[in-house]
Amino acid sequence: MAIFIDEKNGLFTLHTERSTYQMKVGPFGIFLHLYYGAKAENTDFSYRLQMIDRGFSGNPYQADNDRTISLDSLPLEYPAAGTGDFRESCLAVIQADGSRAADLRYQSHRLFSGKKPELPGLPSVYHDDCQTLEVTLKDTSTQLTVTLCYSVIEKLDVITRSARIVNGNKAAVTLDRALSCCLDFPEHPYDLMTFHGKHAMERIPERTPLRYGTTSVDSVRGASSHQQNPFVILCGRDTSEEQGDCYGVAFVYSGNFLAGAQVDQIGQTRLYMGLNPENFSWQLEPGDTFTVPEAVLCFSDQGLSRLSHKLHRLIREHVCRGEYQLARRPVLINNWEATYFDFDEQKLLTIAKNAAELGIDMLVMDDGWFGSRNGDQSGLGDWTVNEQKLKGGLRSLVERVNALGLSFGIWFEPEMVSEDSDLYRAHPDWALAIPGREPVRSRYQLVLDMSRPEVVEYLYQSMEAVLTSANIQYVKWDMNRHLSDVWSSAVPAGRQGEISHRYVLGLYSLLDRLLKRFPNVLFEGCSGGGGRFDLGMLCYTPQIWCSDNTDAIDRISIQYGTSFCYPASTVGSHVSVCPNHQTGRTTPLSTRGVVAMAGTFGYELDISKMSVEEKEEVRRQVAFFKEHASLIAQGEYDRLTNPLENHRYAAWQFVSRDQRQALVCFVLLQATCNPEPLLLRVRGLEPGRMYAVNGQGNYSGSALMHGGIPVPFLYEDFASLTFEIQAIS
Ligand code: GLA
Fold this sequence. Notes:
Layout: E1 3-6, E2 11-15, E3 19-25, E4 31-38, E5 91-94, E6 104-113, E7 131-139, E8 144-153, E9 158-167, E10 173-185, E11 190-198, E12 201-209, E13 213-219, E14 231-236, E15 246-251, E16 257-263, E17 269-275, E18 282-284, E19 289-300, H1 303-319, E20 332-334, H2 336-339, H3 345-357, E21 362-365, H4 393-403, E22 407-412, E23 416-418, H5 422-426, E24 445-447, H6 453-469, E25 474-477, H7 499-517, E26 522-525, H8 535-538, E27 543-545, H9 552-562, E28 571-572, E29 575-576, H10 589-596, E30 602-604, H11 612-634, E31 636-639, E32 649-655, E33 661-668, E34 679-680, E35 690-693, E36 696-700, H12 701-707, E37 709-710, E38 720-727
Parallel strand pairs: 20-21, 20-30, 21-22, 22-25, 25-26, 26-27, 27-28, 29-30
Antiparallel strand pairs: 1-2, 2-3, 3-4, 5-10, 6-7, 7-8, 8-9, 9-19, 10-17, 10-18, 11-12, 11-14, 13-16, 14-15, 15-19, 16-17, 23-24, 31-32, 32-33, 33-38, 34-37, 35-36, 35-38
Helix pairs in contact: 6-7, 9-10, 10-11
Bound molecules: alpha-D-galactopyranose.
Alpha-D-galactopyranose binds near residues 336, 480 and 528.
C-alpha cells in the first residue's frame, strides 16, 4: 500500500519505494504540507512545525488570541491568495462580489486504486497499478471547492498531482491563477536547476543557489518553448550526479507555464509549477469545473542520475503510448536539409533508393509538398498535395517509395496559416489577431485559432484526407512560431484570458482524434526543433525533434540538458551533412553517427551525394544502431561528463536493465598534443561480473567502474569512440 490515512489525526502519508510525502489537516482545517523527502515510516511529521508569533504575519480569525498560527508561515498544500499567505499562491480567485480572496480548508477525502478518472481534455500519466488520493478543500466563505488529486507510482518514486476546481456558487467566479502544485520545505539550502535555451540551442541546464525572494522561469509564448522548459529540479547544494537529494517537477502541459522557487522571510522554500498566471484567467460558471493540468513529482536520494533514470522510465512506460511506445522506431531519412523546398518526386525517389540500399527504414517528406508551398511565405493551411511538384500525386509517390522497401512519412504544420493561402483567403478570421490591430508575423505566418472547434474540425478533415490517401506511417507535427495577438472571436471580451489555454486544449483534442483514427501512425513532435518538448506532447508523440541544430558538437550539449528529464527514446536526432548548415562546423561522419545514436536516429542529408566510403559508413552505422536500438531506447542513460564544464571531451553511456550490456560513447572535443592520460569510468555495471570491452579482455564490473577504461590517444578534433561492454560471466 502506498497511501496511509490516519483518520483520527487527519494525517495523509504517501509512500513510494524511497520517498515519503505527508499532509495533515491542521488547526481550523488548514491543509498543511508536512514532509517530502527520503522515506520515513511511522512518523507524524507535525513535530517539525515551529509555530512562532511572527510580526506582520497575520492570524486566522478563529485563532482568537493565538498569534502562532499563521497562513503566512505554515507549510501549505494548496495556498490561495488574499487571506494571509503573502507568498506565491497556487490559487487566485476573483469572487462574484469582486473580492480577490479564497481561504481553503479541508472538507473531505477519497482513496481509490488506479489513476482514473482521466483529466478531461488534458494528457496525463497513465498507470493501472497505483493508488490515488483525492482531498477536497472548500473556500470558507463561498461554495468554491478544490479537489487535489495525488496518484502514487511507488516503484518510480513518482507522485502525480492535479486538481479540479468547482464553482458551487450561484454566480460566476474568475480564476486568475490555478497552479498544479507547490511544495513547501522548512529550509532553503537548495539549488534550482532550470533548462533555458533558444531556437537551435534548447534545454541548457543552469543551476543556481536559491536566494531570498523568487527564482522562476516561465513561458508566455503559447508553447512550452525553446526558451525555458517546463521541468525543474530542486536539489541540495552538494547533490551531484551520483549522490544527494533531488526533486524533479515536470509539467504535463505544452503551453504557457510558470515554475519557480521562493524563499520566504524565514528561509522556507516553496517550489511551484503550473499554468502561467500571466495572460490567464478563466471564468467559471456556476456548477462548472476547471481541471488543472498534471504535474509529476519525482524524488531521488541518490543523485541526479537516478532521478533521470526514474523519469526516463516514467516517460517511456507511463507517458508515451501507442504502438510505437516501446517498439523500435524506424531509422528515417528526412529530406529537409537535403533539399529544403526545392524537391520533386524524382529527387525524393533518388534519396529513397540510396537510403533503402543502406538499410534505412523510412523516407520522410518534409515541408513543401502541399498547396503553393515553394518557400516559407505561402501555402500553410492548404493541406492538399502540390501535384506540380509531385507529379502523379501522393499515392503514386508513396507506392514507389514503398516498392523500394521504405515506409513513408510526411510533415504537417497544422496550427499555422500563411496569408497567401486559400485557407486564409476563405477564413481570415481563423487566424489569431486583435480587431483593429495588425498581427505580428513570424516566419511570415500567422497562428490559427485552435480554441475554435471549427478550426480544429477543418484540420482534422484535411489531415485525415491526406493520411487516408496513401500508405503514410509517420507524421512530423511542426509548430514554427509562437503566439501573439491572442484574441478570439469565439468568446466575449471578458474571457479573452482563456484563449491561450483553450488553444492548447484544441491542439490536444486534434491530436487525440487523429491518434485514435490512425493508431498505427508514428507521430513525431517538433516546434522549430525542440520548442515544445514536454510531457504533454509526449503523451501523443513518443518522439520529438530535439533541435533544428544538427551540429554534432552543439547537439552534445543539447542532448545532455534534455537527458535530465527526457529519455533517449524521445529524442529525435539525425546525421546531417558537413560543413553543418547551422554552425559551419565539420565533424567526422562517425562522430555525427555516435551523437545521433543517442536518440531515435536517422539522416537528414542528400545521401545520393555521398561517396562510396561514406555510404559504407552509413550502412555500418544503421546496422550498429539497429543492433543496439533496444539498449539505447530502454537502457539506463548516464551522463559521464558535463559538456558545459568539460571542454576536452564528452561521454555518455547506456546500460541494459539486466546490467549485462553497456555502450559507452566518447567524443574528443579538443585534440591536444602530448595529452594527459584519460580514464573513462563506467557506471551501473555489476561489480562482481566479468565483462569484455569491444570483444576483448576480461574486466570486472568494479574495475571498469573504479579503474576506468583507458581512452586511446586520438589525433583529431571531434574524433569519437564507442566501447561496447558485454558480460562474459
Ligand atoms: C522546422 C523544423 C525543421 C523543418 C522546417 C520546415 O524548422 O524544425 O525540421 O521541418 O521547420 O519548414
